[in-house]
TrEMBL record:
Membrane-spanning intervals of the chain: none
Keywords of the record: Signal
Signal peptide feature range: 1-16
The protein's name: Carbohydrate-binding module family 19 domain-containing protein
Length: 441
């Protein structure tokens, strides 16, 4: 059997699928009813086991250091234990609608009276046995791993809602909670050597009109994390080799696939520039070799140059090892895809130039990134190794800092393979003066 790590869609809890009334489904339903009865008597002061997911006073609750941490469900949803789809055994504690819960329980054939008389099964304690980020199902889930519904639904573990912000159009993913894994997976995600791997599949820049599905044979359309891409190094917090002041890294045995569920009410970035903060689930992507780390140097204006105020000038910057001129829709695809490399191994991307006003060239206080005198994304490819940007109106008299921002095509800062490297960007400091008055300020 292969270990399957299921990326739960936002539609996990609200849009239920029909389930067969078999023994496993019936037991799952009875276990869910039993758990929900237990949840009704829990309080914020109830004892708990760290990593346990429960419902307390109608809210999703995670046990952290022996105490419940509560999180409200989205409007119109409740916290409850729902039965997993057969052949998976167990339950999932999540936020869902009352009607969805009722439909799921009805599909199993479980009733309150039958549940109260049945003994607890391993599935009954699924929530308690789970970590803060996973719910475990039994070995019988060799080809499926839990409960998945189509992406169009709203709601997922820990009060995830699929509401759209009026101001930003941001998907609200206010959640912390659970992925579903099969219990025969090892701690490092390794699998049975006889398992059949999904086809790698291919990526495309075309619009996708179908939802990903559980255990799809095409890895690029599957909700199941392929064991071949699990990074076992993520299990280690790095504290085995100590350095003064070093902090422990976050760890994960499933590539942090559901990391954003742990970030409270932060919305999913979802390709948008959300000014109030968000959580981005896209991976970092492909990282170049050290020989292909990008670098840049301004040719004009030169550092320390004096330029006429309010007068057009052209910024010229020499750039190396960046496949320039590649940019996506910044309003819809911001940080929405991994960093990619060209056939030559260079980061596919583009650059930006930004001019910030200073009090004077001796200024030592940090600037405010929200304030700048000029900003331009350079969307054209470099010519003879140089990119240009016209500052058509110039800038007022004063002292300024001009810097580059080298980016991947989805606008994220370029990522390189080593920590110790030279700057990937350049800055120069210049004066803009009113010539007749010889006044630079």
């Amino acid at each position: 059997m292969r270990a399957a790590f299921l990326v739960l869609s936002l539609g996990l809890a609200v849009s239920a699928r029909p389930m067969r009334r078999d023994a496993t489904a019936l037991q799952n339903g009875q276990d869910a009813i039993s758990l929900n009865a237990q949840y009704k008597i829990l309080s914020t002061t109830s004892s708990c086991t760290s990593g346990e997911n429960s419902c307390v006073t109608g809210k999703f609750a995670q046990c952290v250091n022996g105490k419940f941490v509560l999180q409200s469900c989205a409007t119109g949803t409740i916290c409850a234990a729902i039965p997993l789809d057969s052949p998976s055994t167990g339950t999932l504690t999540t936020c869902t609608t009352q009607s969805d819960l009722d439909n799921r329980l009805a599909a199993t054939g479980a009733t309150v009276s039958a549940s109260s008389s049945s003994s607890s099964s391993s599935g009954t304690t699924a929530a308690a046995a789970s970590s803060a980020s996973s719910v475990t199902s039994s070995d019988s889930a060799s080809t499926t791993s839990g409960n998945t519904t189509d992406n169009s639904g709203s709601g997922s573990a820990a009060a995830a809602s699929n509401n759209t912000s009026e101001s930003t159009g941001a998907t609200d993913n206010s959640a912390s909670g659970a992925a579903v894994t099969t219990s025969n997976s090892t701690s490092n995600g390794s699998t049975d050597s006889t398992s059949t791997a999904a086809a790698i599949g291919s990526l495309s820049s075309s619009d996708i009109t179908t939802n990903a599905t559980e255990n799809n044979p095409d890895a690029q359309s599957s909700l199941t994390l392929d064991p071949r891409v699990i990074a076992t190094g993520f299990l280690n917090n790095g504290q085995d080799v100590q350095e003064a002041g070093q902090v422990a890294s976050l760890t994960s045995n499933n590539n942090f696939i559901n990391y954003c569920l742990t970030q409270g009410n932060l919305p999913i970035t979802n390709g948008l520039q959300i000014t109030t903060g968000s959580c981005n689930p896209a991976p970092i992507g492909t990282i170049p070799s050290v020989q292909n780390m990008p670098s840049a140097k301004f040719a004009n204006p030169a550092n320390g140059a004096t330029i006429a105020a309010n007068t057009e000038f052209t910024i010229t910057m020499n750039i190396n090892n960046l496949d320039t001129g590649n940019f996506v829709n910044a309003n819809e695809n911001y940080f929405a895809a991994p960093q990619q490399l060209s056939a030559q191994g260079q980061i596919i991307g583009h650059t930006h130039v930004v001019i910030e006003a200073l009090s004077d060239l001796a200024q030592t206080t940090p600037t405010n990134p929200q304030q700048f005198a000029f900003f331009k994304g350079v969307n054209t490819a470099a010519v003879n190794g140089a990119v240009t940007a016209d500052v058509t109106s110039g800038v007022p008299a004063g002292a300024y800092r001009l810097c580059s921002i080298n980016s991947s095509s989805n606008h994220q800062p370029v990522i390189v393979p080593i920590a110790q490297h030279g700057s990937l960007d350049d800055c120069v400091y210049v004066f803009h003066c009113i010539w007749r008055r010889r006044n630079c300020f």
